[in-house]
Structures
1.
Amino acid sequence: MEPLSWSEIILRILGQFTPVWIALIVTFVVSILYKRRLGLYGKLFDSTIGMIGFALVMFWVFTGVFGGLFNLIITHDVLDQVSGMKNKVPGTPLPSPEDGVYEYYLLGGDNLARDVFSRMVKGAWEVIKIAPFATLFAFMVGITLGLPAGYYGGKLDTFLSFLANLILAFPVILLFYLLVTPEIVATGIPVYMAGVLFIFPIVFLVILYNSRFYTQPAKRNLYIAITLVIGLWLYLGIAWDADPLGLISFPPNLLVVFVSVVFVNSPTVFRIVRGLTLDIKTRDYVAAAQTRGEGPWYIMLWEILPNARGPLIVDFCLRIGYTTILLGTLGFFGLGLSPESPDWGSTINEGRKLLTIYLHPALPPAFALLTLVLGLNLLADGLREESLRD
Amino acid sequence: MGLFILRRLGVMLLTALCLTFIVFFLTNLFPNLEKLAKTEGNFRMSDEAVISYLTREGHMQPLPVKYGQWLGVVPGFTFETDDGITGQCFDGALTAEQVAEQRRYCGILQGDWGFSTRFKDEVGPIIGERLSLTGILMFWVMLLMVPSALILGVLAGMREGSRTDRALSTVAITTTATPEYVSGVVLIAVFASSAVGLRWFKGTATGAMENPTFENFFLPVLTIALYGMGYIARMTRASMAEVMTAQYIRTARLKGVSFPNIVMKHALRNALIAPFTVIMLQFPWLLNGVVIVETLFNYKGFGWTLVEAASNNDIELLLGVSVVSVFVVLITQLISDIGYVYLNPRISVS
């Protein structure tokens, strides 16, 4: 068979992404139709930059979900090595394709004769399944500690700020090298860190419900019971790998990556939340709540936090992007994830070794990472603009 | 002001102590020591051999004692063998009388940074040499990054919402969204690939260690500068846009001052206060970038040393590297705070 020309390659790649295009179009049509009823999310569709950013982000989210979970977009298995396809240029046909096997390597083969295109698509899933959750956990930790630090001030604030600055003064890569090595994993330190860090979401939700429904014990007890049962079940399964039902477990090397990313991100979130709290606690409505006799946690979680949501949502988008970069850095230094893992950082690292001769293995994951982070930055910009408007 | 700096220095020292202790603790965990023993000896060492090696080298003492020895506040480690006494503070096996003449303390307080197992050399000179290489790199990065970021930000911020602003902001966002390992790879592909591309520059900077030229040094410098540039430019733009809406700018305009004059004489000084702090606070991030870029371009500077030390669990070199990097971060924070006070008369430390 003839190798494909560049226009054929592009057409075929666009064709492979069909499920993503359909999902994107549906999302956009529905969102634009109902944008007036969707609050801040709907307002996003008034800003061009925000829409472009959202489209880029959702493209990779859908790619990750369809390609990673349902194996829809990929043309070959990410670990399949086809002899004769080592370092072949984009559009090369397979030497002797079996029935039902896709006949081409659309973006060429890498150093181990695997399909670059499929690995890039699978790499999206590696990011999508870690980055948002790691960022969310970092926010839970940052918020649970930042609110009291800003609200009470004093010794608590001094102590927590010192801790946050301590972690921030650490060069991130040194920290990664110290935490994400097999030797450290063997000592169990990451598990203990997970044990500490993952308790924060449960604490956060319990305090949240308790402060709100303090006067309605029946409702409060129900909510707290649900949170505790589900939360502790997940907590035992994820952090300690001791799920009593045996349903949930977390690969240990993924846990280390997750924990170190949360650990690196939470001090920054802490500082932002603390700063916002310091600003907002001087407002009149906080004084009014204090006069009404509301408890401190009610004021922090239901008066201050909702009013700090604008900057926090914007920072959340930016921080997912930063987390994506951090994950790439980990992959780039070959830390944590397994060497065969198709994540973008590892693929770039593998591809760079032969970069001056073969460009195609390193460039697709590089552009994928670039567009995802760019999308998140643009999305954050659009959100910032729209939330400032009212 | 003096008291403020003194207090900050105190906090800084405490932070540095805590951080080095954390590094010390993590590198001295038993699995790490075992790995060290096996790389130093051989990989098929029995457990007893590992323990005896570690005892002989003083690694089996309690952690606070070892930390004290490294700092130089606890007398150096000595070990009695059949040949005599070996120790941390002197070479070879000596008799008890000879040991008594040797100095007892040898930690970093005495200027003794220890011995690198990776490079088989004293840590102090290694760090000095590598740091000077990185210093050259950083000098050029700063020279490229700061002026271009400031120009970009001022041009974008002086007419907020204009087409120039949109275009320049997009450029700034794109550079902040491109981590060094992506931009480095793309730049090498475009400018240095031997297969396709322009072949203007070299894809490695190994030659730049002895004789930096434009050809072999521009790509690494550009890669680090690009990532930091976008962020500084965005901060400059925000601060410039804010200054341009201030009352005194409107007054100047109504008086009939020309637009270039307003930007140069009235707005610029006030608009540059915020970016100054940002530039200083960029140092920790730049350090990150240095590590990635030095690995990518094979430039054997400070960042490369960090990677080598960390991946070989070279304890004393790693500690030296972290001391230096922590001090760089903390000192830049201090400078940024002090500079902020000097530049902005509205803020006072008391």
2.
Amino acid sequence: MHGTRLVRYALLRLLQAVPVVLGVVVLNFLLLQLAPGDAATVLAGEAGGAPPEYVAELRARFGLDQPMLVQLGLYLKNILLLDLGYSFRNSAPVLDLILERLWPTLLLMGATFVLSVGGGVVVGLLAALWVRTWRDHLISVVAVIAYATPLFWIGLMLILVFSIWLDWFPTSGMEDVVAFNEGWARIIDIAHHLVLPTITLSLFYLALYTRLMRATVLEQRGAEYVTTARAKGLTEGRITMRHILRNALLPVVTMAGVQVGALLGGSVVVETVFAWPGLGQLAFQSLFARDFNLLLGIFFLSACLVVIVNLMVDVIYVLLDPRIRVGGA
Amino acid sequence: MRPDRRLALAGITSLLGMAGTGLMPQPAMAQRRGGTLVLVVQPEPPTLGSYISTALPVGQVATKIYDGLLEYDFDLKPLPSLAESWTVSDGGRTVTFRLRSGVKFHDGQPFTSADVQFTVMEVLKKVHPRGINTFSEVTAIETPDPQTAIFRLTRPAPYMMMALSGYESPILPKHVFGQGDIRSHQNANSPVGTGPFRFVQWRRGEFVRLDRNPDYWKPGLPYLDRIVVRFIGDTGTRAAALEKGEAHVAGFGAVPYNDVRRLERLPNIRIETRGYEMLSPVVELMFNTRKPPFDNVRVRQAISFSIDRQFVIDNMWFGFGKPTNGPISSNFAPSGFYSADVMNYNVPDGVDRANRLLDEAGFPRRADGTRFEIVHDITPYGEEWRRFGEYTQQALARIGIKASLRYEDVATWLRRVYTDYDYDVSSNSLFNLADPVLGVHRAFHSRFIRPGTVFVNGVRWSDPRADELMDQATIEPDPRKRAELYTEIQKIVVAAAPLAWTHEINYATVLDRRYRDVIVSPLGLFGSFDRAWRE
């Protein structure tokens, strides 16, 4: 019974998300119209100067000569048919381009997510258990530094130390393009390339979750149910693992869910520094090229991703805390 | 052992050197087969269709795949390539190319005159951003047999012979590109050419992989097994990859000049400044000549006088440049098109002369020391340009012009300068390309005042005499007469200063020392790399 209710709830939420995503698409479309210059100007610029007939022809081919509302209407119609359009700059369908870049991004985001949430929970818990000792202070100081240091700088320093000086990791890229490994060798090679970007992107979030986890654990430890548990004679270890941890996780999960969107933003920097072939870089490049079809496609996909992750977070809530019930339906 | 071997090689070299002619690989050392060269290109090209986009990144990739009819030596003299020989007749209105036989495209189909006709008439003349101008005089290409292509021109076009490299005019297979819309052709990004390397794979955001073409028409070439073109967005990481030997070649400012100076000191890195002679970028300050006070020639001259060229080169371009006054690069000195006989703005008392000119022009200093205020639009190309903008602000302050700086992204800036003309002073660098007709006229011929077209006459200067001389130089087949025309053109435009030309940029290519013969022609990174080899 509980299971079917959860599924019905999830489906309803997905249905409700459709107008949200469409709203995001329309808003993005209108916002992008405010940017000066268009794809034809940029393409002509890259070509090093071109006759006006060429630029006019480009514009007509891109549909940029149509009134804005007509462009928007066409775009919405296509989106509803799940047709994300064509990137003239890249001479390829938008969907192909995005799918090609999706899995490196998911790999980097997934690894970062696991490292930052997992690491943050463990370190934060330890800091709370060691509260007001030198170990707690050390963790706090390191966390503040990691929180405050710019991502690109961390990335470049990691490259300098671990790649150039120590020669442990490659500087950039997702795999060795001289060797072109296959099978297991390729998987190991990719994992090897994944280390530095994941650490770079994780540090900020790791620091954030550590601080959050430490604060909530401390708060929970003073709660009445902990006193009750202690009175019942449970061991400290059991209280921490069974009771405090589960309750302290809720704010971290909430935060992590909200930050999936931000993770995409942060990955632009990390992907650029490490030449990681993900969506962030693609979005960045398409903005400067005024390749709005592609950019809108990425926004659309990001919006979908955020909606799905938020739904997942809600489901995880239910699993973590039996008091939370799915409702609505 | 080692020095002995080198001596022996030197002997062989000198012997072979005597026999060596234009097309033969320069026998410098014992070239070795095999190896992968990693070329770093920045930014990632939007397409590999070099017949439709002349962007620098596109050219660096596509030139390994497509050949041109001609190659060029460092004096910009044409050499045979797909065309074995050529004759110009009928007062320059007929050009007959004898094409190489036995050449095959990467898909195994033979290369014939039909491919040349198709490429020029159906592709380059119609959709190539510069080909539209380059081949504007070509009315027909006759193909009496598969090995002969006869170009028929309405008027002589001597500059066309300079635009037939694999970069400027790549020869496409008609049987591939002849079907479908050339503008959005599916083979744009899976190119098929006759070049030394075949296209294998493009993983966007990562690399393009090109493998050796075993059936290349130059016997024994290429030496390399593979070229991988990598895309690394961050300047610091690019330098790190080169430093570590993960990447081997990078040029066109992919490595910023301050990093070039640092990498130069490493034992595994070599810096090469040759190989940009068919581009010849010249840096210019642009004046909005139809907007007061820049409609006043004295104001424009004064600003040109205020720029200390050597200071700019030493501090903004880390020494990679050469001071100049005029629009034509000194790379054209061998052909006589470059002239130093022009007004000299690069003088020690430039600031005094500038102040005098502004006083005469009727812009006296006010109580606060300034004459008037302007906005200077910085060229959004990166670090050195930003610093150049800041320097210009200081230079102008010295002559009483208060400039505030504006920095926008490329698309916005292009529109401001070349469409809306909503600017006072900006800067840019235009390529001279392989001939002044292709790269120089566009900056100040009044025919090139075209709102919406970028990198043309954005200063909107117009002078009937200069226009007339340029029109004559365009169709003059005699190189000596052309040189005289350009001497006069340079004298006129430098004195009128619609733009202030400050210096020629010497791009620097960063090379891994293990790789040899990478830069072997004025096309540099736009060369085919057929002779490049790894120690």
